[in-house]
Structures
1.
Amino acid sequence: MRAVLIAVLLVVVGFVILAVGYAAEQASLRAEAQKARTISQAFATTLKGQLVAAIKADGHTSAIAVCQQIAPQISAQYSADGLHIGRTALKLRNPANAPDEWERGVLESFQAALDKGTDIKTLERYAFFGDEAGGKTFRYMKAIPVGQPCLACHGANIASDVRAVLAARYPGDKAVDFALGDLRGAFSVQKAMQANP
Ligand code: HEC
């Protein structure tokens, strides 16, 4: 009888430990997601601001260079403490921004959700990924919608001078013919977490 009681107690304690561990993991995941959300928002606002300012100052053909150089700069500015933020998409302008396997799957699921009528502003995904060495990586993606200022360089009616510069710089450019509200791509955040001891 006593042995049974002890066994039951051990099982209960085991479950409690698991549940506490799970709750802590979920809380840490939500905290990382909140940080990644804030950084993605800041990245989007900064890039859009600089892009619109450059277009206003020098026109779209000059702004192409801004987009090319400023995006990586902003990306570097917000990447710190083991965190990296970048942009990726299914239809690419610069092949260097190609998605990896996980990113491709998430982008495809964003597109499918959008096709079913989900609000693009709500499309995000995050998770922890473990590696064999016991380390953990946090990953986060947030959908980027096509807004009005994007159409001049990613839309269906791109001015011929802009088109010419794009064609010269990005020979295999697939990031055209987008409409307002389409899924342009996503911000992608990766952060190496402290390895579990
Ligand atoms: C002045 C032209 C221009 C405008 C306006 C513009 N882009 Fe781009 N976009 C580019 C260029 C050039 C690249 C390639 C940058 C590079 O070389 O990494 C690019 C790349 C991207 C990428 C990275 C994926 C890829 O295809 O390489 C995303 C995402 C993106 N743009 C979204 C947007 C959004 C959203 C807007 C509107 C807020 C926008 N762009 C407005 C020119 C523009």
Note: Residues 41 and 142 are 9 Å apart (CA to CA).
2.
Amino acid sequence: MTDNKTASTEADSGAPEGNAQEGLVGMPPQDAPYRVLITGAAGMLGSQVLMAVPDAVEALGTDMREAHGVDHLGVDLTDSEQVAQLFQDLAPLHGVIHCAAYTAVDKAEEEPELAQAVNGNACGVLAHEAAKAGIPLVIVSTDFVFDGTATEPYQPDDEPSPVSVYGRTKLDGETQAREAHPDGVRIVRTQWLYGPRGGHFPGTMQKLAAERDQLMVVSDQVGSPTSTLELAPALWDVLMLGEAGVYHAACEGEASWFDLAVATIEASDLSDTQIDPCTTDEFPRPAPRPKYSVLDCSKLSELRGKSLLPWKDALLTYLGSD
Ligand SMILES: NC(=O)c1ccc[n+]([C@@H]2O[C@H](COP(=O)([O-])OP(=O)(O)OC[C@H]3O[C@@H](n4cnc5c(N)ncnc54)[C@H](OP(=O)(O)O)[C@@H]3O)[C@@H](O)[C@H]2O)c1
């Protein structure tokens, strides 16, 4: 591994269903504000979900970190008493979009218990409270639940087989949530995120290209780079229009990290830096990555009547170059 090499990391990144008083899954009264809790509101995705809040919806953000839109600071989602208190304080809630997670993919190999608590157990805790309140819960999950041996896009009902601690804990979160609230949990698996807030791959490429003449980037991992600007409205649609089950949500098309690096550098006017492809074996990381993790998103496209943008168009929009 040389200083010039770099590669992928994950963090490195209808109808409301009613209320507990009625004890059913249905619409809130027409004059009631539709109140939705966003977890991970300071994070890369959660912050964008807050920015994309639909009209007539009141979004309430929580996170461990202070940030714009975080109304409820310091609620540890792994602590069932704190979560129960949060739901009590915010009642009536009409939905939850859960974006908080332990997203340090490589560090998770050293901290499996913490990763399990945040990615696994917290999903069970939230789903338990959402079930008690009779409201839908969107859980954001990942392509890392798959082992990457497929040769065509993964379907939502394909058998998961994670190869990393991060992937296993995220899968456990899916399972715990579905068991606690089978009628209300919508799992949305996404991948290769970047957006206006937070650290992510295109941002790292821009920084490195500004400093170096040459970069080597992994070209044998393939997925779909996905902008949070595209994903955030899709999560709202899954909450408001979707039903319990699993959705895949990613920008259209597929690319390697090398392809994404080249597209980023070209669009950022940094083409003086040469980018060369390298293999995963040349750039080993503590956590194994799926080699191929393109997601079939047709179920989501049918729900919304449209797909997320093709990945390159979404990248150019994000970079302000379209
Ligand atoms: N980034 C990607 O490429 C990618 C790809 C596929 C799926 N996903 C999934 O997408 C979702 C959003 O990812 P992201 O990249 O936006 O994550 P992020 O930027 O790392 O944000 C996650 C937020 O969750 C908070 N958090 C961590 N532990 C918590 C706890 N115990 N209680 C309350 N909040 C806690 C974090 O706070 P601290 O920073 O203080 O820990 C952080 O603000 C996650 O479910 C992730 O697994 C991400």
Note: The chain has nine helices and 14 strands.
